[in-house]
Amino acid sequence: MRISKLLLLAVILAALGAFYGLGLSQYLTFEFFSGLKQDNPGLTATIFFLIYVTVTALSLPIASVMTLFGGALFGFAEGLLIISFASTIGATLAMLVSRTLLQDWVQSRFGNYLKTINSGVEKDGAFYLFSLRLIPAVPFMVINLVMGLTRIRIWTYYWVSQLGMLAGTAVYVNAGVKLGQVEEFSVKGIATPELILSFVLLAAFPWVAKGLMAFINSRKVYKPFNKPTTFDTNLAVIGAGSGGLVSAYIAAAVKAKVTLIEKHKMGGDCLNTGCVPSKALIRSSRIHHYVERAEEFGLKNAKVEVDFPAVMERVQNVIKQVEPHDSVERYTGLGVECVQGTATLVSPWEVKTGDKTITAKNIIIASGGQPFVPNIPGLDQVDYYTSDTIWNLREKPERMLVLGGGPIGSELSQAFQRLGVQVIQVDQSERILPREDADVAEAVMAQFRKDGIDLRTSCKAVAFHKEDGRQWLDAEQNGETIQIAFDVVLLAVGRKANTSTLGMENLGLETNPNGTLTVNEYMQTRYPNIYACGDVAGPYQFTHAAAHQAWYAAVNALFGRFKKFKVDYSVMPWATFIDPEVARVGLNEIEAKEQGIAYEVTRFGIDDLDRALADGEAKGFIKVLTVPGKDKILGCTIVGYHAGELITEYITAMKHGLGLNKILGTIHIYPTLSETNKYAAGEWKKAHAPEKVLNLLEKFHRWSRS
């Protein structure tokens, strides 16, 4: 720490020490200032001004009380003048102290605000700060400290803060004035119309300010467009994947007129190219794997031959069986108008599809995502598939190269390997499943190698080429250049949002660095009547996340004028359906460390569970993160047989604030896999056994035997 910082810190500590050490706090009373004001009004105003500046600069949480105090002492006009300047100067000083002295502390304490405020400042600059000042969504003390870590200019910060806080200061000062006029603090003295009105204004101000800002914002973004006087539909939904279907279903259920537009197939990626086909493929591969393990279960001479085309046809049959759930017929029957075609936004209320333009009071964009195809030289010369097109494969390849070690790449790698394809899985990270803890990834990688997958980590794809009728990947691994031969390549290196045909340029819709649409906590884009959910909005690319977001998007779109709901991501689970399955909810160790959250780990090995032993699936573990010394669950990861089902108990517990003691006290059927959850809770209880109480009980029982 530089000498200047140490000096500033010493001055602040000395000031605080002198204030309390010399007993100066006894003079911060209404009686003292009232008496002083009668004798010397100028000195009183100066002392109050300096104290207010100091209190604000030191981020002491009494500024609101002092504002009321100032109103009662000086009256409205003089009080507003003094407090407006004092609060702004103090806030600016607090910002400067944060910028020069408290960066590390502010970062660790209020880091969760920093990303949001930084992006807001970069996007809207002074107007964003004005919004924060006018609507105290974030405490002013936090704004002062966190703004010090942004690049906002000091003068800009000062004048915007003064202007933004003025209205709120006026309301508080007025309430103080009315309080100062109370002669008798009794029900009769307080229940005056003037005082009641002042406190009603105090309570209503945030709502009025919020409405004012919403009005200003809407006028600004809607200015270039002419709003229709009537609408064809209450809600137009673009995309019939999980997010779009749920949005349309909710709208129809509450009797709104809803139009659902889909350019390809109802059901979206999940039904046609994602969740459903991949799980059907995994099921076939797992059955084959069990037959290969038959002797473990006392079954001899069990043999099976993989009919690869038949397996792939079964995948299509499963899709057809699920299709009616998401069909045009079903949704038409629910009251949804289903339109086939590409949707393009013409204005905030108009969607064009073909020759038809639909006017909608609200719009939900649920256009989903698609596999990302990397720009690797020579890729166009080889036979490559994505998770969208792999389902067209009918002839079993001898060698399949899979690029990508995330959930999609890992699920399909293992499935094809167990169906008799030699899979070479390549990922440039040190391990696959990089979002999971190292012990989780190591357990999965060990199984993959046991299955025969040629796993190449820390391996970067450089180029593709053909030579002598064979296809090759040129790659770099551990500083060496290698070549990998293959018959087909499956690209599974991520997904990107479907936005290219939306006509975003017509509206200037904003996107995040990863290409997803920018939405707020209500799932709104920059246009309050246009919402987005699912893969096109992020941050999660799960079917259940899209359905979750869709509820908020639909309800806010239809009823937001009365009440809006902020999307809740606090308990977002997911599972990777490999063998062993990996399921998670909440924090893992990687995330806890990144966020600076203290935690304890409780672990139970599924290899010791009776049902897992009986089923021949005695592998994996459960790992629970809790608050140190408490049973509050921060997160849970399960690696093992049916982990995607087992995790539900922890999802429910976290959602409803239940701790490990509640799980331990719940009866679990024997013998079931769900006992894993009870035993993990028991491990936590054992580690937190009250040793002193147990020692006393031991002495008591010894005494009772004598």
What key attributes describe this structure?
FAD/NAD(P)-binding domain; 22 strands; mercury (II) reductase (NADP+) activity; single chain; seven-stranded mixed β-sheet; alpha/beta
Walkthrough of the structure:
- With 706 residues, this protein is α/β, with parallel strands linked by helices.
- It folds into four domains: 3-219, no CATH class; 233-370 and 497-559, 3-Layer(bba) Sandwich (FAD/NAD(P)-binding domain), CATH 3.50.50; 379-495, FAD/NAD(P)-binding domain (3-Layer(bba) Sandwich), CATH 3.50.50.60; 580-691, Enolase-like, domain 1.
- The protein contains 27 helices and 22 strands.
- Strands 1, 2, 3, 4, 5, 6 and 17 form a seven-stranded mixed beta sheet that branches.
- Strand 12 (459-467) and strand 13 form a beta hairpin.
- It is globular and about 105 Å long.
- Mean pLDDT is 88; it is low at 184-191.
Largest sheet: 7 strands, mixed
Counted by DSSP, the helix tally is: 27
Residue runs with pLDDT of under 50 for 5 or more positions? 184-191
Average residue pLDDT = 88
Please indicate the percent range of residues in DSSP E strands (runs of 2 or more). Answer: 15-25%
Number of strands: 22
Helix coverage percent: 40-55%
Domains, number = 4
* Global structural class: alpha/beta
Rg, Cα atoms, Å: 32 Å
How far is the N terminus from the C terminus? 66 Å
From the spread of the alpha carbons, the general shape counts as globular
Family: Belongs to the class-I pyridine nucleotide-disulfide oxidoreductase family.
Enzyme class: oxidoreductase
Protein name: Mercuric reductase
Cofactor: FAD
